[in-house]
Design goal:
This protein is an alpha+beta fold and 258 residues long. It folds into 2 domains: 151 residues, OB fold (Dihydrolipoamide Acetyltransferase, E2P) (Beta Barrel), CATH 2.40.50; 74 residues, no CATH class. It is built from 6 helices and 5 strands, in the order H-H-H-E-E-E-E-E-H-H-H. The termini are far apart.
Length: 258
């Protein structure tokens, strides 16, 4: 009997359906090590009691609907520590993930936008299995919204369900992460782990100053060389990227100059 894909999910890849069901590394010898690691994480979540290929997930709201229900602005910002009793069930792709022992934060993105979600050992069911979440995974989550100390609307997760395991890393852009606020929040989280609490506005200002200095130096990692050739490797895994670049370099080296 053929399993139909869930309405909100893309079908599982051929690699996932053929190479992962046996559950041992030996049978996955032809796969990239990152793919094997992600399949092992999928297997660990299954061992914890989750369905490997859930048929569907009952989503109640989109990310945009959650954000619209609890708006904040410069004139009327959300208050730190504020909570609401309403339950929300969302589904989306994990775009960032920060695990800190007894807690974890993730940015969950669906077709309408991105919401920060919070997993905690005290509240989240099956919390131990969150360490097997990979970037790019599609999750179903449910919980109640609250406002963090930095003033960000966040969904505290009470229950969650892996929906699709991402077998490859998310593609990186040529210039790296472009969103100043997201970069700053990640830096703020890194500093907080070291017990250093710096205002978000200050971090954003410092990042922009550093980017300006990097882009105006005579030799800068952010400035493209005049004779640079752009190679788009967006949809390639790391081994494919290396082969792609080597092919282009070899072609350029051995092309007769007129």
């Amino acid at each position: 009997m053929t399993r139909r894909p869930a309405p909100i999910l893309a079908p599982m890849s051929d690699v996932a359906s053929t190479a992962s069901d046996s559950g041992d590394d030996h049978s996955r010898g032809g796969l990239h090590e990152q793919t094997i690691a992600r399949l092992n994480n999928r297997d660990a979540q299954t061992a914890a009691g989750f369905e490997a290929h859930p048929y569907s997930y009952a989503r109640s709201h989109s990310a945009a609907e959650l954000l619209a229900a609890h708006p904040g602005s410069e004139d009327a910002p959300l208050e730190s520590g504020q909570t609401w009793p309403e339950q929300y069930a969302l589904a989306g792709r994990v775009m960032s993930f920060r695990h800190m022992g007894g807690a974890a934060f993730a940015d969950l993105q669906d077709q309408s936008g991105t919401v920060q979600v919070y997993f905690s050992k005290k509240v989240t069911g099956q919390f131990a299995a969150t360490k097997h979440i990979d970037l790019g995974d599609i999750l179903g989550v449910s919980g109640t919204p609250f406002v963090t100390k930095t003033g960000q609307l966040t969904l505290e997760i009470h229950a969650w369900q892996p929906l699709v395991k991402s077998l490859h890393p998310l593609p990186s852009k040529f210039h790296g992460l472009q969103d100043d606020e997201l970069r700053a929040r990640r830096r703020q989280m890194e500093l907080a782990e070291k017990d250093k609490h710096v205002p978000l506005v200050e971090i954003i200002e410092n990042l922009r100053k550093r980017d300006h200095l990097d882009s105006t130096r005579a030799e800068s990692p952010l400035r493209r060389a005049a004779d640079a050739v752009l190679l788009d490797t967006t949809h390639l895994v790391i081994d494919e990227q290396v082969d792609f670049v080597l092919e282009r370099v070899s072609a350029a080296l051995f092309t007769p100059q007129g």
